[in-house]
Amino acid sequence: MSRRYLICLYPALFFLAGIGPAQAHHAMDYALPATMLEGLLSGIGHPMLGIDHFIFIVGAGVLAAQFERGWYLPLIFVFASVFAASLRYFGTDLSLGELPVAASLVLLGATMLAAQTPRDSVVRLLFLVAGTLHGHGLAEAIVGAERTPLAAYLVGLAFIQCVIAFGAWRAATWGAERYPKLPLRQLAGAIAGIAGLIFSGMLLTA
């Protein structure tokens, strides 16, 4: 990447340095959702407020744009995250913490910064594993709630992740067509990778 493109990363890096991973994981101020509406709003807000999750979903959309008919690839991440969140709610707690989520950002960044676009089978596996890790972390906001807000939470979670991923995929597709020389994949990969390293460092030194 040229220097002028690297300069574009500076504001993002300053922003990331000032926050922590999953800075605001709870849209309900750490209170469990008690109604269907609260569950829905919590599910919608959780990936938006957790910056580590948000960056990965956007990066997944950008990476998916490198493939013909790649729009379906982020769905693997979404389905895996919702399934993993459901499993944790029903008692499958692996006590993983946030470090694996941060590590998934590093892996996503490395994949996007590779000289050649990876095979779609590699991307599918990455999204499956990452979705499981992210879903396990996202379930923290709903464990202990009643079944009705749980169902609404999962609906909101799936909906907003699809919106973010498809929005990023569409924007990246449009950008590649209009500005073919713009290294969008590399820029997004650099942000994801550096964010993952920053968050990992914060978690390891906390």
Mean pLDDT: 86
- Give, in order, the helices and strands: HHHHHHHHH
Rounded to an integer in angstroms, the radius of gyration calculated over CA atoms is 17 Å
Principal-axes shape call: globular
Fraction of residues in helix:
over 70%
Largest sheet: none
* Beta strand count: 0
Give start-end ranges of low-pLDDT stretches: 14-18
Number of helices: 9
By secondary-structure content and strand pairing, the structural class works out as mainly alpha
Strand content: under 5%
* C-alpha termini separation: 33 Å
Task: Looking at this protein, list some descriptive labels.
mainly alpha; 71% helix; 206 residues
What does this molecule look like?
- This protein is mostly helical and 206 residues long.
- The chain is built from nine helices and no strands.
- The protein has helices at 3-7, 9-17, 36-49, 51-64, 73-89, 99-113, 120-138, 147-178, 184-205.
- α2 (9-17) packs parallel to α9 (184-205).
- It is globular.
- Residues 14-18 have low confidence and may be disordered.
